Amino acid sequence: MLNESRRRAYLTAMQVVNWLPRTELPFAAPSRPQLLAPLPPVEISVPEPVAASVAPVIEAASFRAVVERPKVEVSRPSLASTRTNAVTEEVAAPAPVKAAAVPPPRFALQLLRAGRCLLLVELPTGEAFQSRDPAYLLLKDMLRAAGLPDAPQIIGEPVRWPLLVRGQLDQGPEAARDFVQGFVLARLEDEPCACLWLIGLPSVRFAGEANAESFNRELQIEGLGAAWALPGLELLMDEPQRKADVWTAMRRLMTRWKTIEE
Known about the structure:
- By secondary structure, this protein is α/β, with parallel strands linked by helices.
- It folds into two domains: 1-32, no CATH class; 107-261, Uracil-DNA glycosylase-like domain (Uracil-DNA Glycosylase, subunit E), CATH 3.40.470.
- It is 42% helix and 15% strand.
- The protein has helices at 4-13, 33-36, 48-67, 79-92, 134-145, 173-190, 201-206, 233-238, 242-261, and strands spanning 107-114, 117-122, 153-161, 195-199, 218-221, 225-230.
- The chain has a six-stranded mixed sheet with strand order 3-1-2-4-6-5, sandwiched between helices.
- The longest helix has 20 residues, at 48-67.
């Protein structure tokens, strides 16, 4: 048990000025009656308008305190990790695929004149015709069957594509078409013709802007006029059955140049 002097020393150290024990303490000094008297209630007067405006605010605050849910914090990635992920995605992304370059077409064409017809003929070997070449002999037979001179006049040097082995010049299919059409158009300006024979797939493709499905058909080419698409001389020698279709188409178109000759 603490005596009165030590008890007051503890209370002073705890900065307790007034205190009231729950039970009677032994060796304690008698209590002062004024300390045991109950304190009078403190009344705070609030104006009615203020009280009316404060009451809803207090109720709303208490309601929000009741219904407000605890916030859940979501951990965000650090700036360093974001940069690391970005670098990883960039490295993992596939490189753009470049379009494959289209190789330049390869062909050799010879322009000839037989009567009122121009012939743009594919050279099977890539070299100029010789008098005893089988392909040239077949061409002479076709001209005789069409009623045209069988000794055609060679016009200019053969057109060989690509023009250059090396260099930055565009030598793709579109450039080849423009070159071949320009070459033929220049000769037509010198002397027109009744019909332009396109013999061989390169002639049909780059002068007539058509394909093998147009063989034995008449074409209307802008700037070049009427043209006739035929299979190549080498193809006719390898597949003789095609000659019947050529003859049928020739009979249908023969009046075009025969009328002009007469």
